[in-house]
Amino acid sequence: MPTADASEADALPPELKRRALEALEAPELHETPLPSGFATLLRLWHYEEEGPWRAWSVSARPSAIDAPALRIRRVVWDRPGELAELVGSLAGIEEGRSPRLRLSEARFPMESWSALLEEVHGLRLQPLFPEVSRPEGGIRERWGLTYRLSAQRISFEWWDAPPAAWKELAEWTVRLRSALEAWLGR
Q1: Domains and CATH numbers, the chain
Q2: Could you tell me the pTM of the whole model?
Q3: Which terminus of the chain has fewer CB atoms gathered within 10 Å of its CB, N or C?
Q4: Closest CA to 57 of 44, 70, 69
């Protein structure tokens, strides 16, 4: 579970952070869960030190994998707003208050998903490499991707610039994010 490096972030109530991360780790379950039978195929996340934290999920009904559309969800945590409220308030953030989360949902065409998967199937990935040291000045952002198919799952996570061996995956992740955002914006 990611943690922020900024000292202000440590001042956020632990319960508030826990609830926000819980929603970011499972956008398909936030607020109103997707209907029964949906399975999450992919989760993408981007946590910025000084910006909102975002996570996306792509879900489908396993019995209808050839259906014309998948479901995408995005959860955004207004972490900067939470920090500003904490700094601007003498009383601090009310304990037990819900985090500032926004949920967006849209259908995602199977053709778009298939095209993105074709791209990623051509990538050459080195799954493991020696540990990389933390960047000087602390972590400014985190990216991550989890892909699930049936009982199998693979995850990648990096901070700031990805390892050189994951450069193509990071570029694909940016294209994926753009595609999801385009459909969420319709």
Answers
A1: 7-184 (3.30.1560)
A2: 0.83
A3: C
A4: 44
